[in-house]
Amino acid sequence: NLFEHGKWNPFKEMELLQNRLGRSLLETSAMRGHEEESVGSARWAPLVDVVEDDKEYLLKVEIPEIRKDDVSVRVEKGVLRIEGERPFEKENGDKRVHRLERSYGHFTRTFSLPEDADAGQVKAAFKDGVLFVHVHKCEEAKPKQIEVTVD
Question: pLDDT, tens digit, for every residue of 10-34?
Fold first, then answer.
C-alpha cells in the first residue's frame, strides 16, 4: 500500500519498484543458467527500513562487512542517495568457496525526500553493520499545539 494514514508514501513506492526490478534481474539471470555468476557480480541493493516520528525520518540501511569509508550519503535536489561497495573477497590458496549467496559489488539506493524533510539537516551514523540516516523535518512542518481560550 503506497498510502499510509491517507498520505502518499514515496519511500514505499521506491521500495516496491526496487524490489520488482531486483527480482526481475535475478530471475532473468537464473533462467539463462548463469545463477552462480550473477550472484557474485549482479548489482544489489541493501535492505532499508524507513521510520518516521514527529521530528525526523530515519533510514536504517543493512550493510554488514562494509567499511564506513566505502559508503557515501548525499542529498541533491530533494533526493537522498546512498552509495557504497562490498568488495568480493579473492580466494586464498588454502580456501575453497562452496556457496555464495550474499551479493557483492557496488550498490546505490535513492529516496525522494518528502516536502517536510530538511535537506540541510541530514546526519548519518554507522553501528553494528547498520547505517542510520537521520533526516530532520522542517520546523514549520511540525504540528503545533494551539491553545484554545474561553471567551
Answer: 777 777 776 666 555 544 433 333 3
Count CB neighbours of 55 within 10 A.
10
pTM greater than 0.85 (yes/no) = no
Q: 3-state secondary structure string, the chain?
A: CCEECCEECHHHHHHHHHHHHHHHHHHHHHHCCCHHHHHHHCCCCCCEEEEECCCEEEEEEECCCCCHHHEEEEEECCEEEEEEEECCCCCCCCCCCCCCCCCCEEEEEEEECCCCEEEEEEEEEEECCEEEEEEEECHHHCCCCCCCCCC
The Cα 133–Cα 151 span in angstroms is 47
Written as nine digits, the cell of 26 is 535475478
Grid cell at residue 18: 526496487
Q: Report the distance separating Cα 97 and Cα 15, nearest Å.
A: 32
